[in-house]
Write a structure and sequence with these properties.
This protein is an alpha/beta fold. The protein has ten helices and seven strands. A seven-stranded parallel sheet has the order 2-1-3-4-5-6-7, sandwiched between helices.
Length: about 260
């Protein structure tokens, strides 16, 4: 029997980010976690661990990937398989770089308070998806509606969580479960190079790159994402790291949409 799959959404995301790929995931049960008003990555990880099975598969997208790594820090023995998508692992940079990140995030929060979540979402969306998909009205509308379901207060809490995010380098270095890294080729927020750095820290991890996709890979290329993750889950049913992996198997693979 496959372990339950816990799906961890990113900033301002909900079940809509996972609905296109769930049918391709081999599991007894899939559950999307809601972080509520949690305002730290640590609190979000505790929310994941509350009322969950003794063991499970974790799939985290964007901020959800950071939450997944924090779960692995707290309870590594419970995580049977781990998928990290379009995410990062470092803490906020010190100095000017960190200040700049904070200013940009707070500017979006001010826009959300002054003009509403949808107006903020449209501004935010410009760097979130593949440039060619900005004219895809159904995709854009589904993302904007998802953002509208959140409030400026939730946005603020999640911004606080990201600004105070812990460094997950030690987690990656000590992972014992099978791990898959997935990233959109044109992800401008969490680029392929960042996932390659994560693979260096966790050399047993496999890396798959989703072509013609930006940051919102599950919504931009759901069939490709479902194929990559579904196949990997089937190949790693037992939740054990495979040894003796050849060098060719560590290279990124690309999944092209049909």
């Amino acid at each position: 029997m496959n372990p339950d799959i816990l799906l961890l959404p990113g900033l301002l995301c909900d079940a809509a980010v996972w609905e296109p790929v769930i049918p391709g995931l081999p599991a007894q049960r899939c559950r999307v976690v809601d972080y509520g008003a949690a305002d730290s990555i640590e609190a979000m990880a505790r929310a994941v661990l509350k009322d969950t099975p003794d063991s499970f598969t974790l799939i985290g997208h964007s901020m959800g990937g950071r939450v997944a790594m924090e779960v692995c820090r707290y309870a590594p023995e419970r995580v049977q398989r781990l998928v990290l998508m379009d995410t990062g692992y470092t803490a906020r940079a010190p100095g000017d770089a960190g200040d700049s990140e904070r200013e940009k995030r707070m500017a979006l929060l001010s826009l959300a308070r002054e003009q509403g979540m949808r107006a903020m979402g449209w501004t935010w969306l410009q760097g979130m998806v593949h440039p060619d998909r900005l004219e895809d009205a159904p995709l854009v509308e589904s993302i904007l509606q998802m953002i509208e379901r959140k409030t400026p207060e939730i946005f603020e809490a999640q911004i606080r969580a990201l600004l105070s995010r812990p460094d997950a380098t030690p987690v990656l270095e000590t992972l014992q479960c099978p791990t898959l890294l997935v990233c959109g080729r044109e992800d401008a927020w969490s680029p392929v190079s960042q996932h390659e750095a994560m693979q260096v820290l966790a050399p047993q991890a496999q890396l798959s790159v989703i072509e013609q996709s930006g940051h919102m890979s599950t919504m931009e290329q759901p069939e490709s994402v479902a194929t990559v993750i579904g196949s990997w889950l089937q190949d790693n049913k037992q939740g054990q790291v495979q040894t003796g992996v050849g060098p060719d198997e560590k290279k990124p693979t690309s999944c092209r949409p049909e």
